[in-house]
């Protein structure tokens, strides 16, 4: 078993690209019932996508016959309603990732709603408080449903957006294709569950093969990046292009230039302002450099045509802040959270930190001899844990119960040999520190990427009542136990 085979599965790495596409409570009804005129509908079902080229349509699952599903755009504070129609042969839901929705609209099966049965409908309705880049996907068997293509972007626009010439959405994903060019089976295998997750061998942007982004000199583009992959972490190196980061996980951040590759774990987002102040004929490479020895060119940016304006625009101002309650750290309720388990976790601390990080980044299979079989782990055997508990299903006792309005400070340690993007439903949080050092931007996020053996402090006001999932967004890790519930009373 080679490093490349463990990381990428069967087949050679293929690169995809392209530009974005755009669409706009509770209660189950049979699909045969009449549909209200003008109502937005998201219909799950089988379809096909040109993952490796227009000439080779590959069977996938999608919303409204496409991957990604329709790009939903609406204004901040605008009432939103969509009808989910389930034409799959299994149950499903929709989770509105990063959006502070009412608990009943959060799309977590059995915890916040009954799963939507085949042939049934469910109506989602909410009014988003925050502007930003969000996305939607199932929470029912998400390690397979997302892995087969069920996801789409949700863009909530600011009342006063920044001046740009184009606003583009890129949903980054990877797919594990077999030697016949079809999506490989084995979803939820022990190997994926206990190591790096299901990492694919074919990269797409918006479900399509690679295509350069063509810009005119001095054009300004807002590029919204969404990592929709099950497990792949992207480390995006823009070279000399020098974009400015203006939002993370949909929340505004102090505009800043990158001093290192932009790390996007599964489910994470970043909004960039990219100025093409280069002459026509200039070409820049966007490289993914996260996995050691497996770096590749994701796509290119090329300047062509007549300049949009005579000179580059001035640096962008900060985006308007969203109405998030500021944590009161002096009176915060502090909780210690330990993430444990997984392959190598059972070895205790015998592997050095550098060895453990290299295992994740290269995907080498030092423990493969002890694995085998298929299907998601059962009974917590060698599972992932949150505070020593390997959860199954979505309903379990909360690890924290907080009175509404309480500031919670979570002191989290990753005691595993693997990276974990930790996601909290229903809230955004400030990332306060990493390994005891304050973060430079004190950024708001809903998913924080934790390196092996890293300690991270986050804080938020628990002001959205309900039971909220708190889990690793490497979807195989979640299904194998790395999830918990935080209750806000």
TrEMBL record:
Q: Which domain of life is it from?
A: Bacteria
Q: Which InterPro entries match?
A: Cu-oxidase-like_N, Cu-oxidase_2nd, Cu-oxidase_C, Cu-oxidase_fam, Cu_oxidase_CS, Cu_oxidase_Cu_BS, Cupredoxin
Keywords from UniProt, A to Z, are: Metal-binding, Oxidoreductase
Q: Which residues form the Plastocyanin-like domain?
A: 58-159, 167-279, 380-488
Q: One GO MF term, please? A: copper ion binding
CDD domains registered for this protein in UniProt: CuRO_1_CumA_like, CuRO_2_CumA_like, CuRO_3_CumA_like
Is Hydrolase a UniProt keyword of this protein? Answer: no
Q: What is this protein called?
A: Multicopper oxidase
Organism of derivation: Pacificimonas flava
């Amino acid at each position: 078993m080679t490093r490349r085979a463990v990381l990428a599965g069967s087949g050679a790495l293929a690169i995809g690209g392209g530009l974005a596409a755009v669409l706009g409570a509770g209660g189950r009804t049979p699909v045969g019932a009449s549909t209200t005129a003008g109502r937005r509908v998201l219909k799950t079902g089988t379809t096909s996508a040109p993952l490796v080229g227009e000439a080779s349509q590959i069977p996938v699952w999608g919303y409204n016959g496409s991957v990604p599903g329709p790009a939903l755009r609406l204004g901040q504070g605008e009432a939103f309603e969509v009808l989910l129609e389930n034409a799959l042969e299994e149950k499903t839901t929709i989770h509105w990732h990063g959006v502070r929705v009412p608990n009943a609209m959060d799309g977590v099966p059995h915890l916040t709603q009954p799963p939507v049965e085949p042939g049934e409908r469910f109506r989602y309705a909410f009014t988003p408080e925050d502007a930003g880049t969000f996305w939607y996907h199932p929470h029912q068997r998400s390690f397979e449903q997302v892995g087969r293509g069920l996801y789409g972007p949700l863009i909530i626009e600011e009342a006063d957006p920044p001046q740009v010439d184009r606003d583009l959405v890129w949903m980054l994903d990877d797919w594990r294709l077999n030697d016949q060019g079809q999506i490989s089976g084995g979803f939820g295998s022990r190997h994926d569950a206990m190591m790096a997750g299901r990492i694919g061998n074919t990269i797409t942007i918006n479900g399509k093969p690679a295509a350069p982004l063509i810009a005119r000199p001095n054009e300004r583009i807002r590029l919204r990046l969404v990592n929709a992959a099950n497990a792949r972490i992207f480390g995006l190196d823009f070279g000399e292009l020098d974009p400015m980061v203006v939002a993370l996980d949909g929340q505004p951040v102090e505009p800043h230039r990158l001093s290192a590759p932009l790390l996007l774990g599964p489910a994470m987002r970043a909004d960039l302002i990219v100025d093409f102040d280069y002459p026509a004929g200039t070409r820049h490479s966007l490289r993914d450099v996260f996995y050691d020895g497996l770096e590749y060119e994701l796509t290119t940016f090329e300047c062509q045509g007549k300049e949009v304006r005579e000179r580059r625009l001035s640096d962008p101002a900060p985006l308007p802040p969203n109405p998030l309650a500021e944590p009161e750290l002096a009176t915060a309720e502090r909780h210690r959270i330990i993430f444990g388990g997984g392959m190598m976790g059972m070895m205790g601390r015998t592997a050095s930190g550098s060895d453990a990080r290299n295992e994740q980044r290269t995907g080498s299979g030092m423990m493969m001899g002890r694995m085998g079989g298929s299907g998601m782990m059962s009974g917590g055997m060698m599972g992932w844990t949150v505070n020593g508990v390997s959860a199954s299903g979505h309903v379990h006792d909360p690890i924290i119960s907080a009175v509404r309005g309480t500031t919670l400070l979570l002191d989290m340690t990753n005691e595993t040999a693997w990276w974990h993007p930790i996601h909290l439903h229903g809230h955004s949080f400030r990332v306060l520190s990493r390994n005891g050092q304050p973060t430079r931007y004190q950024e708001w996020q809903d998913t924080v990427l934790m390196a092996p053996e890293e300690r991270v402090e986050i804080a938020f006001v628990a002001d959205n009542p309900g039971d909220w999932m708190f889990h690793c967004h490497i979807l195989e890790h979640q299904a194998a136990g790395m999830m918990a519930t935080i209750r806000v009373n």
